[in-house]
Amino acid sequence: MNDNSTLHAPAIELRTGDWTTLGAAAGALRTAVFVREQGIPAELEWDEWDARSVHCVAWLDGEPVATGRLLPDGHIGRMAVRADQRGRGIGRQVLEALVAIAAARGDAGVELSAQQQVEAFYRGQGFEPVGEPYDEVGIRHVKMRRSLLASGLWACIAASFAVRGERAWAGALDAISGNDASAALRAALERGAAQAVGKLGRAGGFLDNPKVRIPLPDGMRRVEPLMRSMGRGPELDELITSMNRAAEQAVPQARQLLVAAVKSMTVDDAKGILTGGDDSVTRFFESRTRAPLTERFLPVVTRQVSRLGLAQRYNALAGQAAKVGLLKERDASVERYVTTRSLDGLFLMIGEEERAIRRDPVKAGSKVIERVFGALR
């Protein structure tokens, strides 16, 4: 594939169909570009996937000038543009036709193996590189991927609101492109997560914030006055400080998993986020990350708390309180208690960031967030 121009394409006719219908034209183009021009062995050009793929051929003045195919698994390949027609945007039209077919049949995304020399062309069409470059048939390639999440999502949301009579809202969505929808969702989720992690994962992030400050467990608070009257107040204060410091150290571990959750978002997830109310982003993150974050936080919390001798005293006292019903079982270990409260605080802060974006998208500092979430208000 060699068509990296951004010029306007000429008026062409695009035909899509199976190999029986388009194989002769597509085959001639691929032979000219890949076999003769690039020197790829003919026996490597043809495979069993031609008969199982959707093909697109662009025609100009009655002659085929570009082609590509879409495999059943969402891979796009065999993109070829006749040498004398390159730089006119014809390859882009073929590519978009195949992407549209993939979106219409419900694919979550499309992938392709791009020759490295035309990586910039595919980037311009919304594809992002995945992994390191590699050699294929003696030519340097890079794997690239484009999400189709927003295309199907936006259509189904707009349609559902139109059915309910909310034509103005659906019309507002129609003015927003699928790429905008996808970008806004990902940007909003990543921004909310990053802001929450940034605010909590620093000195004083928990300790100095009354909304998330980790107190003694309920059962221990009941006996706190007695312990303070016995001169144990400084120890309790030191325990509270150490628990909050441990939380502040653990929270930065969440960033990677939160970003991974965004990348794994499905069409159903995105629809739920856009239409599920002011806490839908928070619920999405919590459902995807609480369990793995618990396991990731525990070692960090354990290291921080173990630096103080209070951990053993806490566990001993908490264990006794749990036996007589003054303490929940999950709070009987300082490590488990701090981990749980750390995650509670993280999701609470994500929720605050989410509501702030929904209330005032302009302040989010992103034009695409402003456009999309402004339409949802």
Structural class: alpha+beta
Q: What's the helical proportion of residues?
A: 55-70%
Strand content: 5-15%
Shape label: elongated
Number of helices: 16
Query: So what's the oligomer here?
Result: single chain
The beta-strand count equals 8
Rounded to an integer, what's the Rg over CA atoms? 28 Å
Sketch the major β-sheet: 8 strands, mixed
C-alpha termini separation: 43 Å
Order of helices and strands: EHHEEEHEHEEEHHHHHHHHHHHH
Instruction: Output mean pLDDT.
Output: 76
Note down, in words, how this protein is organized.
There is one protein chain. With 377 residues, the protein is α+β, with helices and mostly antiparallel strands. It has 16 helices and 8 strands. Strands 1, 2, 3, 4, 5, 6, 7 and 8 form an 8-stranded mixed sheet that branches. Helix 7 crosses helix 15 and helix 7 packs across helix 16. About 12% of the residues have low confidence.
